[in-house]
Amino acid sequence: MCGIVGYIGLSDAQPILLSGLEKLEYRGYDSAGIAVHNGKKIDIVKSKGRLYELKKKLSSNNLKGNLGIGHTRWATHGIPSDVNSHPHTSNNCKIAVVHNGIIENYLELKKNLSQSIFSSDTDTEVIAHLINKYYVPGKIENLIDAILKVLTKINGSYALAIICEDFPDKLIGVRKDNPLVIGLGENENFIASDITAIVNYTRDVYFLDDEQIALLDSKNVTVFDKNKNVVKKDVFKVDWNVESTQKGGYDFYMLKEIFEQPKIINDFISLNLSDNNFLDKINLSNKQIKKFNRIYIVGCGTAYHAGLIGARLMERLPNVFVRAHMASEFRYSNQIIDEKTLLIAISQSGETADTLAALRIAKKNNARVLSIVNVVGSSIARESDNVIYIAAGPEIAVASTKAFSAQLMAFYVLVCNLYRSLEIISEQQFLQMQEKLRELPSLVNQILSCENEIKDKAQKYLSCKNVFYIGRSLDYFIALEGSLKLKEIAYLYSQAYAAGELKHGPIALIDDTILVIGILTQENIIEKTLSNLKECKSRSGKIFTVTSQIDNKVKNISDDVFVIPKTHEIFEPLLANIVLQLFAYYIANGLGYDIDKPRNLAKSVTVE
Ligand code: G6P
Fold first, then answer.
1. Which of 329, 357, 465, 507 has fewest C-beta within 10 Å?
2. 255 Cβ closer than 6 Å to some ligand 1 atom
3. Does residue 394's CB lie within 6 angstroms of at least one atom of ligand 1?
4. In this predicted structure, what is the pLDDT of residue 1?
5. Predicted TM-score (pTM) above 0.70
């Protein structure tokens, strides 16, 4: 949620920290701050508001030094304010700390310290005071010991970057249940909560594991476990390039990412379609899959919506119970989980706390875990038995777009292979489906080339205050996703309803102020959804239909129609969703919102 960056090297730390924070601002953005060691002591500047507020403060007060830590915050404890911004320090300013996560027992720990030393409402500040309390000035080992002791006291999740006045050339990072990567440079090293922050400087990274502590100077990085044993880490080479983290001429990352979808789908196809061993690769051969009698699919937000589609498609597998769960609810669902269970965890970031928690419950109960993840080396990927990487590149906009399409591609390729392997479809049908998958990039391009048409439709509905999205089966899941996009970036109240449920209550709300967006792609149920749209029309609702099946009936009841290309019907929801992405984008754009950084939201939700 928040972002961390740390630098030690020969260059000025401040510009490197600020450029890292710029890249991290999408993770949290209500305040920011940096601490730089000037050789004698630690200087700190922090500010409520967006990063430019911090930059404004720094323009008249540049911090000089080669060691520093920075943070962009998404408030959990204490309102966004200058004092609650990170870094936080011990009262003698010897220790400075930035933190992602939540210290659950901070109030209890605070009680045992003098109240007068606290200046903020945050849970983080207690860490700085405790390190200072246990630290016996002297060698760096003493500082490590103090930090390790604090780790035994705190409960919760954390990624921390720490500096100390006594060590102008040492940077420390430690994590538990919150991601932290160590970037390895030449005569410089980095810490970051997210690779994006440091990819301009290095592609060689270590991923810290839980309760590992990294000690960095400009030349070396040593990683210890919680018992101070040195741990050997493998260097991981990041293949994201710098351009992929830039806007590339688009007004917003979201629009750039929407337009990247044909390429991403194509990449996914090239990587996975020609591969006859797709199921072997993920260890789900015919024999393996027959072992499972339950498949649970978990994810949050957009990833959950992809999971709903995946689950509906997997319900065709014989003798297996399939259900998608919101990861945040999974633990309350009293599901049977054992060695005959397959859990599919979907997450763009690979760090979402609820999804990770669901994964751990499954593992604890001996289930097999397959994850569908974008970020290589993320916690969910590392803790899974098998991973399908969606290879969508960095997704910066908070509202997920390209990751969703790539997650659907993962399910499409997975189910096509499973259907064939379990003889649900013939070899010929399998080849036909593959052919249709190969056509998808060009079909998505066709829709994107109608950007202006979708923009014009969005302009018409700018004054709308309430929007219903309706559909049945796969179309309903796309309705959920379309509605989420509109809420996230345009702050419009919108609701997705299974079309058949409308008359069981919500239809009471329909009048001429309401826009109803109907998604009609599934041939066998189109007539039924059409009837539901008619019911809305007769109550004066405005109707916008997104469909692959245009005819006079559709035209007659719709105020607006967007026709998507026809393809295999299970792939059409992906196409309909592209229209809804652009629609939400142009509503938000027309209303003048900061689309990449919607209020109250964070890209990666690393607290439960
Ligand atoms: C947050 C984001 C959503 C995202 C969800 C799951 O809520 O705002 O866009 O879908 O987290 O994230 P994940 O990284 O697990 O896919």
1. 465
2. no
3. no
4. 65
5. yes
CA atoms within 13 Å, Cβ hemisphere of 108 = 7
State percent of the chain over pLDDT 70.
98
What domains can be seen in the chain, in order of their start residue? 3-239 (3.60.20.10), 245-448 (3.40.50.10490), 451-590 (3.40.50.10490)
> What CA–CA distance (Å, rounded) separates 6 from 147?
17
- Report how far apart, in Å, the C-alpha atoms of 331 and of each of 161, 182, 194, 322, 581 are: 31, 32, 27, 16, 31
Polymer length of the chain? 608
302: Cβ below 6 Å to ligand 1?
A: yes
State the closest ligand 1 atom to the C-alpha of 355, by its place in the atom list counted from 1: 15
Give me the residue label for tokens 């710098």: 242
Catalytic residues: 2, 603
**What does the pLDDT look like over 78-99, one tens digit per residue?**
888 888 999 999 999 999 999 9
What is the residue-wise DSSP string for 26-90? GG--SEEEEEEE-SSSEEEEEEESSHHHHHHHHHTS----SEEEEEEE--SSS-S-TTTSSPEE-
d(CA 153, CA 427): 59
CA distances from 242 to 83, 161, 197, 215 (A): 34, 24, 10, 27
Does residue 328's CB lie within 6 angstroms of at least one atom of ligand 1?
A: no
Q: What is the 602 CA–ligand 1 centroid distance (Å)?
A: 8
d(CA 495, CA 476): 11
- Please give the number of the atom of ligand 1 that sits closest to the Cα of 301: 10
Question: Is the Cβ–Cβ distance between 574 and 548 less than 8 Å?
Answer: no
For ligand 1, pick from 604, 606, 607, 608 the residue to mutate: most ligand atoms within 8 Å of CB: 604
Q: How much of the chain is in helix, strand and coil states, percent to nearest 5?
A: 40, 25, 35
